[in-house]
Each structure stands twice: as C-alpha cells, then as structure tokens.
C-alpha cells in the first residue's frame, strides 16, 4: 500500500481535490478496472487532482489511472461528487479509508 502524498500548499487557493464515488465498473478500452490489491471490480472512489485521475478501492489501495482524463471524471460524477480539503479527508468521508474493504464480497448477515 502506498503512502498518501501530501499536497503542496501554494497559497493560490485552487488546489482542491475533487472526488466522487462510482459504484459500477469502470471500463477502460472495454476492460473493467480491477484492484490489484484485493481484486475488486467495482465500487470505486475516483479522484481528480488537477489533470491527474486516480482510482481508489474500498481497501484503500489507490493508483494513478493515466488512461482517464478530467473529462472522464466529469462524466462519472454522481451525487457524491464534491470538493474535499485533502485526500485523507475525502477517503474517510466517503468510506474509502480501508474500513469497508471488501464489504461487497461478504455476506452482511451475522452467522
Ligand atoms: Zn482493493
């Protein structure tokens, strides 16, 4: 798992991280994105940091997806799309800090 990078604070006020949830699969050139850490194929957090698009999994694994552009992000924004002061704040607010890792793989009913 990679360490989260701190955003430089340049004082111009425009460094705002934008993130949205995307419950469905994300297909890139017809191939569904898959988490290389836990194997999840849907339920993503999509992060737009200026021109860089990153995908984050429920298990908190995150990577830069160079095949996606800002326009792709704009097309994926749903009701959860909003600005966040930092990636960590966004991940916690949206449930992508790892606490819900693999939730859709498991049966929620008690044994
Ligand atoms: Zn994962």
Question: What helical percentage do the residues reach?
Answer: 10-25%
Q: What structural class do you assign from the helix and strand content? A: alpha+beta
State the low-pLDDT regions, or none.
7-15
Work out the count of structural domains.
1
Rg over C-alpha atoms, rounded to the nearest angstrom = 14 Å
The order of strands across the largest sheet is 6-5-4-1-7
**Ligand list:** zinc ion
Explain what you see.
With 111 residues, the chain is of the alpha+beta class. It has one domain (17-99). It has helices at 70-76, 87-94; strands at residues 17-22, 27-28, 31-32, 44-49, 52-56, 62-64, 82-84. The chain has a five-stranded antiparallel beta sheet with strand order 6-5-4-1-7. The longest helix is centred in the last third of the chain and has 8 residues, at 87-94. Residues 7-15 have low confidence and may be disordered. The structure holds zinc ion (ZN). Zinc ion is lined by residues 35, 37-38, 40, 57, 59, 61.
Summarize the structure.
The protein is an alpha+beta fold and 111 residues long.
Task: Provide tags for this entry.
2 helices; five-stranded antiparallel β-sheet; single chain; two-stranded antiparallel ribbon; alpha+beta; binds zinc ion; 111 residues; 24% strand
Topology (SSEs and partners):
Blueprint: E1 17-22, E2 27-28, E3 31-32, E4 44-49, E5 52-56, E6 62-64, H1 70-76, E7 82-84, H2 87-94
Antiparallel strand pairs: 1-4, 1-7, 2-3, 4-5, 5-6
The structure holds zinc ion.
């Amino acid at each position: 798992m990679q360490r989260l990078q701190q955003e430089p604070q340049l004082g111009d006020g425009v460094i705002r991280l934008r993130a949205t949830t995307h419950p469905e699969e994300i297909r890139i050139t017809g191939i569904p994105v898959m988490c290389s850490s836990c194997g999840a194929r849907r339920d993503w957090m999509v992060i737009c940091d200026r021109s860089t698009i990153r995908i984050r999994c429920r298990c908190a694994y995150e990577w830069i997806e160079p095949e996606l552009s800002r326009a792709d992000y704009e097309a994926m924004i749903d009701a959860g799309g909003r600005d966040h002061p930092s990636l960590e704040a966004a991940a916690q607010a949206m449930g992508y800090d790892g606490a819900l890792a693999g939730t859709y793989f498991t049966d929620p009913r008690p044994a």
